[in-house]
Amino acid sequence: MRIGDVPFPGRLRCRAERQYLVVRAWNRRHALKSIMNRTDQIRKGDILAFVTLRNERVRLPYFLDYYRKLGVDHFLFVNNDSDDGSGNYLAEQPDVSLWWTNAGYRRSRFGMDWINRLLMKYGHGHWCLTIDPDEFLIYPHSDSRPLEALTDWLDASGRRSFPAMLLDMYPRGNIEDQPYEEGTDPFQIARWFDPANYSISKNAYYGNLWIQGGPRTRKFFTAEPLAGPALNKTPLVKWHWRYAYVSSTHMLLPRHLNMVYDESGGEMASGCLLHAKFLSTFADKSAEELDRRQHYANSKEYQAYHAGLRRGTDLWCSESREYADWRQLEDLGLISRGNWA
Amino acid sequence: MVAKSRLGLGGTWPVCAAGAVQLGVVLLCHARLDVAARMARIWVEGGARVAIHVDAKASARSVARMRDALSDLPGIVFSRRHTCDWGRFSLVRATQDAAQMLLERFPEVTHVYLASGSCLPLRPVRDLAAFLALDPACDHIESVNALDVGWTVGGLNEERFTLFYPLDWRKQRWLFDRLTALQRGLGIRRRLPKGLSPHLGSQWWCLTTATLRAILEDPRRVEFDRFFRLTWIPDESYFQTLARRHAIRIESHSLTLAKFDHNGRPYQLYDDHALMLEESRCFVARKVWPQATELLAHFPRPPGPQPDLSPPQPQRIERLINRTVRRRLLGRPGLYMQSRFPRKDAENGKTSAPYSVFQGFSDIFPEFEDWLAGLLDADVHGHLLGPEMVEFAGRPEIGPGAISSNTLIRDRDPHGFLTALIRITTRMQVFQFSPRDNQRLNWFIATDPNAHIHVVTGAWMLPLLESDMPFDDIRRVTALLQRAEIAQMDVLNSVWVKARVHVHELTDFLARPQEMLLQSLQHLPLRDGPPGDMPRMRDLEGLADLVRRLKNSGLRPHLAGDALPTADITLPERIAAE
Where in the sequence is the signal peptide annotated (chain B) (predicted)? Predict the structure, then answer.
């Protein structure tokens, strides 16, 4: 037997790491201050959404509307010290529970400690969607079947996690040119995307795929493509209190939750998170985030964007595709219906 | 007592219009009793008599609610409740009891349909009765000889009958598998009851009362039940096997549309399937997602003025489902994405379309790329894997599919780069290659049946003729490129090659350039016939001299071919070989 075949060390390490994350999340219970707790409304089988936000007030009405229509039954928000009224707005919503914190985003592993904590306490046994306020889930048949149809089917297929790659959407022309109005569909403005420039490699340790590419890599990270943002995400998980997100929602422990792809040539079902980051609100946001230096890799992304955006670049190119519906994404091979006929 | 209840209510019952057929339904209900109650109502209101079996695992409250919801309907009986476990004999037992009760309580029933609480009647029940009346003695039950392997999906065929299965596959899977393996190892073969030949088929059937009675009242039923109790998934074989013993005429199909995926789980039906289900002309479909409210409201279709006698035509929906099964198992060739990332050599199509690679041609003919682009109905690129930039046709900064021309981004995942390019473009892709380029795709391309590779070995040397580099640098570059080309030739000469490969030596090519060039254009989508002109050839003056100097400096540029008009230095080689 080769040493690499001995199952224990890697598994034990993963297990130790997961336990560390779970304990860490447990320890963060005091960092979160409950502002509005409506979690007694949560019923068995409800689909829950977990969101961390900071100053996203203008996005919230459409965001909540979108996911309510999709079939999310309850939202659990962590407000990281917003000062634009996001907190008050959320506290008024009938299906939102809200926590507040002013702890460092970076020191809380980019918010994942808070989310892991809430998932542990409220997510156990539910299908949980962990997203940002600028991410909008699209899955096969999402125009005709609610999220519950998907989770029922995943349950019936014995799956506990569902992948949705992050798809960066951008407007044609300069990002600042078309101001975003509260409550409107951001993809009326940012309705273009890159169809086929994604690179994939497998993370042998966690077992997840590492996907990079898209407009950010081709525009801002040409000198250092490896530093570009990761696009693979597993936002929808039937949670168990023992689970933990490792790095954003890119990967999870235990590792079987990352096995959302087929390695024998077949296709498993998958969706997309349409990323409405590149709107008129983005330049202010990137300036602010640059000052705070609370983001991944010393806010390298935001530095690059800010430099890029100041030069007046727009992300659009002649090969960009205009977004139509999930069928288009499926034909392009960005998502797949797998065997969900 | 039975007769009395029938007489008491008989006058108010809706009666099937279709001649002599009186339909009875055995309804097996497990979960979602609210939906099941709805289905029972559809059956009864369509004129059928219904016997309902409710899984003993269902809560008393939901059963009470169901009885309450159906209390206004005559013609419904509830049979004794059994705990039903998937794949166990309890399902057969429940069916037997309910069928027995149905036949006792409603002796006028001529046909019995087995359905579940999540089976949705698509066409009016009256149509079904009329369809059955076309041939009243016929039993509609899918019944395939178990020896004809291939009916089951992802399971056992004949072994269902020859081994013992006392365990529940869902709850005790590990033990189940061990026990099965152990019995195989011991060579256990159960003996079938005499006179039975095992048949399998869909568990949803429609039998004539005569056949069903014969099965239920068979004098050897105890023996048969004992046998089937320990077979695997007897609900797919009990009636299917025994019907062969008693039926007069079997139409081996199921009137219920029920498809299974590659793991043997039933497909669910949603609102967006409505049109296709209507076109399928099937009588009953399963399994409906309980929240598919539009589907539940849309079906069954209201009866027309005349009963519609057309048989079911489920081909289209079956095609759709077979297509998704194929997609799940085989996927789309050449696609690499978040939920399809095949292992090496398990790709089922490394790339999605044919493409051509030309190596050395652009060294011999400097304007080869433009010349070829003028001839072909294809995208002719430069060196896609080149070291300076990704040379897309026309040299845009952003290529097809928004692929960057940046080499660092390309080299992050060259496989993804090439496969994405081939998949996103609609025309054939043709590109140049050379030992100067990124060599990481050599194995991938060589083992890809879609690739068509044309190589002129040693041609990379020609551009060096025009370079004004010092000879030492030329020598170093030559050594590097030659090593790269030798490694590439090892790949192209291996036994694993699946691509179509044409390798010419430079000297052979230069001897008959036109002929060789035309030969390599075969199998390419030529726009209008073979070309009239040849591209300009590079000036070869000094080649022989260069080769000689390289040889004298200790290199051995043999891939260029040995027949160059150089000074004869084969003699020392022979000596070395000797």
Answer: none
Closest chain B CA to residue A193 = B402
Q: Which two tokens stand for residue A337?
A: 């219906």
- Does residue A56 contact residue A86 with C-beta atoms inside 8 Å? yes
| Chain B residue with minimum CA distance to A144 | B272
**Residue A308 reports pLDDT greater than 80:** no
Q: Is B522 exposed, middle or buried (0-12, 13-18, 19+ CB in 10 A)?
A: exposed
Provide the residue ranges of all domains of chain A, joining segments of one domain with +. Answer: 3-332
Distance separating alpha carbons of residues A44 and A127, to the nearest angstrom: 10
Fold of A3-332: Spore Coat Polysaccharide Biosynthesis Protein SpsA; Chain A (3.90.550)
pLDDT tens across B117-144, in order?
888 899 998 889 999 998 888 999 988 8
Give per-residue pLDDT as tens, B89-124: 999 999 999 999 999 999 999 999 999 988 889 999
Residue B275 contacts A where some CB pair is shorter than 8 Å: no
Q: Contacts by B532-535 with C-beta closer than 8 Å and gap 24+?
A: B534/B365, B535/B365, B535/B366, B535/B367, B535/B368, B535/B371
Q: What is the DSSP letter of A119?
A: I
**A286-299 burial code (b ≥16 CB/10 A, e <16):** beebbeeebbbeeb
Q: From the CB of residue A121, how many other CB atoms can be counted at a distance below 10 Å?
A: 15
pLDDT tens-digit map of A125-159: 999 999 999 999 999 999 999 999 999 999 988 89
Question: Which B residues 373-402 touch A at CB under 8 Å?
Answer: 396, 398-402
Interface contact A165-B338, CB threshold 8 A = yes
| H or E element that contains B482 | helix B471-492
pLDDT tens for A272-304 read: 999 998 888 877 777 777 677 666 555 566 666
Residues B236-263 pLDDT 10s: 889 999 999 888 888 888 888 887 777 7
Tell me the nearest-neighbour CA distance from A43 into chain B, angstroms. Answer: 17
Q: What is the mean pLDDT of residues B8-33?
A: 67
- Chain A residues close to B406, C-beta within 8 Å: 218, 222, 225
**Nearest by CB to B327, which of A141, A165, A338?**
A338
DSSP character string of B311-363: PP-THHHHHHHHHHHHHHHT--TT--BTTB-PPTT--SSSSSS-EEEEESHHH
For residues A122-134, b (16+ Cβ closer than 10 Å) or e, as one string?
Answer: bbeebbbbbbbbb
Q: Which residues of A touch B332 (CB under 8 A)?
A: 267, 333
Read off the pLDDT of residues B418-473 as tens digits, 9 standing for 90 and up: 999 999 999 999 999 999 999 999 999 999 999 999 999 888 888 888 888 888 89
Other Cβ atoms within 10 Å of A176 Cβ, number: 16
**Residue A97 bridge partners (DSSP):** A76
> Three-state SS for B96?
helix
CB contact under 8 A, A261 and B338: yes
